[in-house]
Amino acid sequence: MQTQLLTYTLSQKLGEGGMATVWYAENSLGKRFAIKILKPGMEVKEKLAERFRLEAKMMVSLEHPHIRQVIDYHEDATTMAIIMEYLEGQDLGQYLIEQGPVSEKQAIQWFTDMLDAVAYVHQKNYIHRDIKPTNLFLTRNGSIKVMDFGIAKIVDANLELTETNTNIGSPQYMSPEQITTPKAIDHRTDIYSLGVTLYALLTGKKPYDDSLGSAFTVQAEIVKKTLPVVPGVSDRVNAVIQKATRKKPADRFQSCDEFKEALTGVKSIVVDLEDEKTLIRNQDQNLRNLPEDIRKNTALPLEETVNKEADQPKKTDTKQNEKEKKPKTSRNLLIGLGSLIVLVGLLLGGWTYLVKADITKGIELANKGDYTEAFHLLYKHRESPFMTPEGINHLGYMYGTGTGTQRDYTEALRWYWKAADQGYLLSLNNIGALYQYGLGVGIDYYKARDCYERAAAGGIVKAKYNLGELYFNGNGVNRNYYESVRLFREGADGGDASAQFKLGLSYQYGYGINRDYQQAEYWFRKSAAQRNAEAQNSLGVLYYSGNIGSNGVDYGTARFWYEKAAEQNNIYSLYNLGVLYDNGLGVIKNWPVAVAYYQRAARLGYADAQKRLNQYAIRW
Q1: Is 323 annotated in some ligand binding site?
Q2: In terms of domains, do 246 and 138 share one?
Q3: What is the pLDDT of residues 584-616, one digit of tens each?
Q4: What gap in Å lies between CA 134 and CA 96, rounded to an integer?
Q5: Annotated catalytic residue, options 91, 116, 130, 358
Q6: Long-range contacts of residues 373-381, Cβ cutoff 8 Å, at least 24 apart
Q7: Is 130 marked active-site?
Q8: Which residue ranges traverse the bilayer (predicted)?
Q9: What is the per-residue pLDDT across 384-430, written as a single tens digit (0 to 9) for each?
């Protein structure tokens, strides 16, 4: 059975809860989605409807690689629906049932991504309130996604997705304050739930006994009992679990970043573990981590020295002893010193090997876009003499974009300058961008231009595009379209998608060059092939306007490119699709679909879409 909702075809039920059903759906391009629809009749229950509506609005505003993406929200007289990305894989609750507990290494890897995602949620002033294995999804490519914000709380807001005096959540993973004082919870309730979830992943068991089927029994245990130590797991991870699940919020980690630093060993923590003080140190266990051949060689000198002395006891008289005492002591001292020198040399060699391997791996991961582990590895060795300018630049990039760590433009600038001082020209380009857009520093187009010019002279393609932007907009220089076209062309020839788009735009409107729609199309297509949404939208505009092709206006091809760009939330394409459906251009006229596109554009801040909806008193 197939059902149509806007441009989506719903064909298979993926799951069902108390208030909503999730469907598998595809759009007109065959792209897959999951659509969560409020059950019939629920929309008349205002609190449930408002909770559903706010969940959608909150999720649309969250963009993080480890949070399930919500694409859109639709509401009409009979239907309330949340359109989400479709995920292939399974939630961690099902994974534990099928596979059992996970290794410590795997749990840490997953948790660094989870903690980054929840830290991002907290920065947005939201609290999840229902973190548990079944709300954590493991995709087929091994990525973790946090999902289901249906009972999230909006901090310091007048509206919440649930009433704050209700202890909503999954009993096994609730914090003590969710049970005793639900109105007073803050983000540290998520810290507690994350700690319990880590325990569950490592043991494969529920944290508390619910065999009697009573939530009250479980809640009583949560308030009173601490989690037991997990056997077969390092003291460090056990200490992290104990710290995260302290009964008082003030005794826990105060942020997800603090949690992650302790879990990955970046910082030390001290906790009571089995009635003893256990210190978790940030240190390399050198011998344990050395390659096998080095470990074996390291042990030999020590073993030989001990065995020779132990296996050959001799009895001599006192005088003979006194005669031999000094030379034997000297010989033993020399042997010991020699062994020590060999050991130190091997340890230093092994340490060097490990540090270089970490840095190389960190750079490779950053180049692949796996920023969480990349940041951990590169930050750990940030002051190492073996750290490369490329690794330093990656640290700056991760701070500047908030990938793998919290966004911090001041730190980004510091690391970029360190790399630039070592001759890494791409960092100069990145410094220029910070000055151009005033990120962590005041806007300074002259400093931006200086950085771009130096980087461009060294062959950095992106710097040529950025320098072209300054001339195109007249920022820090006299506006000069001829110069901007020259720079855009150099960048475009070098494969930069943004430069290709801007060169196409120059041809489309005749900025510094004769207008040429065929050349515009050529460069837009080159850029669109690299998923540049602006170029995709511009191709749609060319076909909509009839500026290319022998058949004049081509609304069908225009819609194709608009939809491509709309998948990346390009506001102009969203609005343009609304215009097509509003007026029946190349499609059957469909006002509800038009409204849905206008609403998406309006929520993303496009003023024309907001005005259009306001004309009809439609909420956006």
Answers
A1: no
A2: yes
A3: 999 999 999 999 999 999 988 889 999 889 888
A4: 10
A5: 130
A6: 373/109, 373/112, 373/404, 374/398, 374/404, 375/403, 375/404, 375/405, 376/112, 376/264, 376/266, 376/404, 379/266, 379/405, 380/266, 381/355
A7: yes
A8: 333-354
A9: 888 999 999 999 999 998 888 888 889 999 999 999 999 999 999 99
